[in-house]
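To illustrate the input format used throughout this study, we show a single complete record. The first block contains the structure-token representation of the backbone; no residue identities are included at this stage. The design step must infer an amino acid for every position from geometry alone.
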């Protein structure tokens, strides 16, 4: 489990980017639920923590694909692949993330950059 931030420091409707590799976004919904998904959109290199949160969906700030925070599923194009979801536990006011062991669906430009190739 990786400590992310204190729940009291993450207001409802806001997101926190956990700078691990690859980064993970933690969302606190208006209903008070907390979810964690991969931060990088599966379409191109955009941070979903910078997107718009509505209910249990986040809209990518670059081309407006939406992802379901509960499942990681894409609900609107142009993204086609889901983001990974991660386990979340809130204990003693602290948000902890259990990072998925599944392979992330990083966009090709990010995969190439991580491999040392052209972005
Ligand atoms: S970068 Fe997210 S939809 Fe294009």
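Output of the design step:
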């Amino acid at each position: 489990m990786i400590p992310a931030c204190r729940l009291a420091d993450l207001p409802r409707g806001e997101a926190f980017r956990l700078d691990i590799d690859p980064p993970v976004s933690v969302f606190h919904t208006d209903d008070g639920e907390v979810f964690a998904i991969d931060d990088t959109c599966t379409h191109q290199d955009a941070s979903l923590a910078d997107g718009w949160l509505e209910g249990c969906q986040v809209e990518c700030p670059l081309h407006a694909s939406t992802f379901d925070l509960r499942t990681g599923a894409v609900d609107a194009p142009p993204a086609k692949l889901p983001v990974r979801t991660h386990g979340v536990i809130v204990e003693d006011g602290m948000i902890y993330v259990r990072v998925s062991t599944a392979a992330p669906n990083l966009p090709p430009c990010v995969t190439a950059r991580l491999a040392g190739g052209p972005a």
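Structural context for interpreting the output: The two ends are 31 Å apart (CA to CA). The first strand starts at residue 2 and ends at 6.
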